[in-house]
Design goal:
The protein is 83% helix and 0% strand. The chain contains 7 helices and no strands.
Length: 175
Amino acid sequence: MRTRTDALPPAFSSLLREFNAASSADLSGNAHQAEVLLERAGARLEEARRAVGDARPELALDLANEVRVDLAAAEELVDAVTERLATLRAVRKNPGAKVDEVRFRLRDAQLLAVQRDLTAEWGSVLDAQLNRIDRAVDALTGVHPDYWAYVRDLDAVSDFIAGVVDRMRGRADRQ
């Protein structure tokens, strides 16, 4: 795990250099938090070793489980930074791919509404999502566009559409 945490500072530095500062603000404490978790995991591991030496296997097992939890949490913190960097680089390379994916979901949901004769109830709700998509695209401007806001906005639209589709399917299944 230490090797993976060594990749965190350069990845975070790349985030700051390559992208709008708002794209990584929520990740600024990840390196420190991961380090704290690794130190705690190391201390618990030593306690577990002592517990094994003292013939206290239950305590050793409990401590080993706590070590696993700490390591998993540290791994998530590291992955959050490296995954964000990869996501932002992919979106910067091809911002249209993300919007095309969401527009496809919207068209698919609109088709479902038509097929199930639910356009009176859901048509305008789904049509309004096109405006949200357009606003996300229009906001992607400037020297350092906020790609993370773009991703979050489009993900929110996609999640909303998925919720509408679930409701349409649920309503149609009950009829």
